[in-house]
């Protein structure tokens, strides 16, 4: 039975609708305001009055959710940052490439990234900002966002200054959000990594997360070099540590693995994001799964840095949650979540396509603390939707039609029932 006539506002018609719990051929979605009012087959709605957005030849899916990005680095796309011979060398080259940028340059770079997100069907992003300038372009765009203010500092004075800046930023973002009359931007904190952020900064961020419910994210085990640094204080990353003001005399290795160190500070109590986690021991796998902290896997960025494998299967077997992100355009060719999902299937063929889609939709929404009304298509869900043109409809698995058989650029991106592309 079709929906009641009086509530209908907009109907999407497509060759394939993925919910993602099921796939509907010849599907249709009725949108009432900001929510989905009905979902089913087009033939049940055909002939009814109402505005129809005809997406014939397309697959319609939940809006993509990118769980890790650095939008303000988008101007460094196209190989502007030399890869170098190690992760440490790449970081040094990155710092040189953005040296001298002012606030306007960071905003312009972030705006470029936001435009690319929307072009690739992303409706929600978890962004990390070092400059504090990405919220403006995000608020103006209509896209949802959790924006994490990056905390870097290893010496006592630098750590306290950065935390004071973070508190000012958190207040400012609340004021900006009210000015835009937007509830779609949530501020958070991101202690950068154990090799660049003091234990004091980590504890402060963790405490704020616990007291105020502020989202938290950290980079962890992006490189194997991190293990040597935290255990013995040696290796290529030591040179990077010594570049941070005051670190040479104030920082010493904790003498334990990165995960054990992070959890000793209380991070396991936060449900915070663990970004990358490319090198987890078996002990780490169990600890991560028990903590409930989601792991954010950035498959194409991992390929860029030459990480041959990722413990994604082990994390999932242990009961942990894995979601997907693109990282920045300084280490990736695009901000396409479709292409990230393709890379997962390429590198981890044992994972079924429907599960890969959940990593970029339903599971991603839960991991960002956005509840159960995002990341799925169904009655009562928020109308965050993307549509992609089908190139290969011959694939038997409908989820593969989306991931491998459709063009990665979106033909329609919608947030809260409003078309933004």
How would you describe this protein?
- This protein has 421 residues and is of the alpha/beta class.
- The chain contains 16 helices and 15 strands.
- Helix 3 links the parallel strand 6 and strand 7.
- Helix 2 runs parallel beside helix 3 and helix 3 packs parallel to helix 4.
- The longest helix is centred in the middle third of the chain and has 25 residues.
- It is globular, with a radius of gyration of 22 Å.
Identify low-pLDDT runs. none
What's the rounded overall pLDDT mean?
A: 93
Number of helices: 16
- Round the Cα radius of gyration to an integer and report it: 22 Å
Question: What level of helicity do the residues show?
Answer: 25-40%
Major sheet: arrangement of strands: 3-2-1-4-13-14-15
Q: How would you characterize the largest beta sheet? A: 7 strands, mixed
Structural class: alpha/beta
Tell me, briefly, the overall form.
globular
Tell how many strands the DSSP assignment holds: 15
Beta content: 15-25%
From the N-terminal CA to the C-terminal CA, the straight-line distance is 31 Å
Topology:
Layout: E1 10-18, E2 23-32, E3 35-41, E4 51-62, E5 64-69, H1 87-97, H2 103-119, E6 122-129, H3 135-141, E7 144-151, H4 156-180, E8 185-191, H5 199-212, E9 217-220, H6 225-232, H7 236-243, H8 247-250, H9 258-264, E10 273-276, H10 282-291, E11 295-297, H11 299-304, H12 312-317, E12 322-324, H13 337-347, H14 353-359, H15 362-367, E13 385-390, H16 398-403, E14 406-415, E15 418-419
Parallel strand pairs: 1-4, 5-6, 6-7, 7-8, 9-10, 10-11, 11-12
Antiparallel strand pairs: 1-2, 2-3, 4-13, 13-14, 14-15
